[in-house]
Amino acid sequence: MHHEIVFDNVFFEYPDKSFALKNLSFTINIGEKFAICGNNGAGKTTLLRLLLGLEFHQKGKIKVQELELNRDTVREIRKRIGFVFQNPDSQVFSASVYEDVAFGPRNLGFSEEEVEEKVERALEIVDLSEYKEHSPFRLSFGQRKRVAIAGVLVMDPAIIILDEPFANIDYPTRRSLQRILEKDVIEKGKTLIFTSHSRLLIENWSDNVLFLNKGVKLFVGSSSKLSDFPETEKFLGKF
Question: Boundaries of each ABC transporter domain copy (predicted)?
Fold first, then answer.
């Protein structure tokens, strides 16, 4: 089994020593749905910041697709990862849905013809083709979330990371987003990583799960085995 991501004894501390990830080791396989969970302040956001090279660990190793993450490789690694924020308003900013999704490929210097082809395809995947001329700010929260996902899918990254992807959306919207991600990410053998507080989602939608508490790994392994660890109940509710 090839590893997509490897954390090997990673230690990270903020300069004010307010929080640290302590000797964290785990692997994520290619094509896996991997959940990261834990209570607020567990270290989920810090872990994602390290993976995106927004912070750099002080000890240990992080590898993405066999490439060791450091200041020299961070730009290359970022090209391989698509990140969807919890709040779509953090990444949706253009005057129209089309312009928003076109931003990434235009930035990479694709021709306008190629940009159009990529954007049309991404909007089709998230079922927003008819909204391409709309302002994203006049759409519902769930629709803006789909615009944000289209903006990531259009770049065709090997790894997609979603921060609390289904927070603040109703069940039908959640199911449609899951179907979109299953079709365009999972079925294409890409790797999907998501953070969540929802025990139901973790148990039913992830292959493996990392459970963090105050920067320490409590559990990593099959999501079906999470219920064997009673200490996780106080964060995720009863199993």
Answer: 5-239
Per-residue pLDDT of the chain (239 residues; tens, 9 = 90+): 578 999 999 999 999 988 889 999 999 999 999 999 988 888 998 999 999 999 999 999 999 999 999 999 999 999 999 999 999 998 999 999 999 999 999 988 999 999 999 999 999 999 999 999 999 999 999 999 999 999 999 999 999 999 998 888 888 888 888 998 988 888 888 999 999 888 888 888 999 999 999 899 989 999 888 777 777 776 676 54
The helices-and-strands tally (H runs, E runs) of the chain is 8, 10
**Which long-range contacts does 169-176 make (Cβ < 8 Å, 24+ apart)?**
169/141, 169/142, 169/145, 170/142, 173/142, 173/145, 176/127
Q: Is residue 21 one of the residues assigned to a domain?
A: no
The residue range of the domain holding 38 is 31-58+75-236
Residues 6+ apart with CB under 8 A from 69: 50, 51, 53, 61, 62, 63, 77
Q: What are phi and psi of 110, to 5 degrees?
A: -70, 155
Distance of CA 95 to the CA centre of its chain: 25
Q: How many domains does the chain have?
A: 1
Q: Please state whether 142 falls in left (phi above 0), alpha (psi between -120 and 50) or beta.
A: alpha
Cβ atoms of 43 and 195 within 8 Å: the answer is no
In a domain, 135, yes or no: yes
